Amino acid sequence: MRQYSIADLEARLTPSPRMPVLFVGHGNPMHAISDNAFTREWARLGQELPEAQAVVVVSAHWLTAGSTHITDAPRNRVIYDFGGFPDELFAVPYPSEGDPAVARVLQRQLVEYEAQLDAQWGLDHGTWSVLVHLAPRPAVPILQISLDAAMPLPELHALFGRLRALRDRGVLFIGSGNIVHALGRARWEPQAPAWDWAVEFDRVTADALREGRTDLLLDPFGTWDTARVAVPTDDHYRPMVAALSLLHPTEPLSFFNEQIDMGSIGMRSFISA
Q: What's the CA gap between 97 and 213, in Å, rounded?
């Protein structure tokens, strides 16, 4: 394995205009092979993003309880981490490169958290199902950082905040999950209306994001009664917290894909403005 000096790592990511931060509501894996309002917005946005030196994704589908992992394989494998879908979905290709040097830069920023390098993981569907539209022909390395499922939300926010400075060195960060995610209450019929509690939780969290009320967003269950229904488990909420941590104080954001899909899956997404 190649040994990287500090000089090597410092040279890998050079100063750049500040990269945006995205949080993407990824929803149903079938979006990967669908042409709909959500995927068209991802494609449109991808054409407008500035050129990055690396893309780092925090996906709801990579949970590592008690630790934080960073992919460092030179080439990413595609993980089909779902079942019960058409064969076509299991055949979606997404060839992309990783970058061991960028992984070590990320690891250095998280040294106090003893972040581990991981060559076994790849790109799970929380990442590639969005990127096939957002960046269909990736020209830069793509890496993932896992979510410590055991870490309280305020600590998770502090952890990912350690990476904020890398936005000024060409790193585009994407959180991929869903703020409202109650899969067990999904309505599968076409054009199903959203549940009232889903609409309400989407509204109050959007207001908190708009107003910069991080304190409320880091304590959803203590703040909003609807949280227990809209977020029965917080795995899909955590990528939003990661993206939120990467914003600078008072940095504005704008929303896209604000609809609720299948009655209980919030597709609300944001990008730093």
A: 37
pLDDT in tens, 81-109: 999 999 999 999 999 999 999 999 999 99
pLDDT score recorded for residue 189? 86
- What is the value of pTM for the model shown? 0.96
- Residues of the chain with pLDDT below 50 are none
List, for residues 139-148, the tens digit of each pLDDT value: 999 999 999 9
> What integer pLDDT is reported at residue 10 of this predicted model?
72
What are 198's two structure tokens?
Answer: 């889903």
CA-to-CA separations, 95 to 15, 27, 125, in angstroms, rounded:
27, 22, 13
Question: Which two structure tokens, joined as six digits, stand for 43?
Answer: 């494609």
- The token pair at 46 is 């991808």
- The tokens for 127 are 């990442």
Contact 245, 177 (CB under 8 A): no
Number of C-beta neighbours around residue 33 at 10 A: 15
Note the pLDDT of residue 212: 96
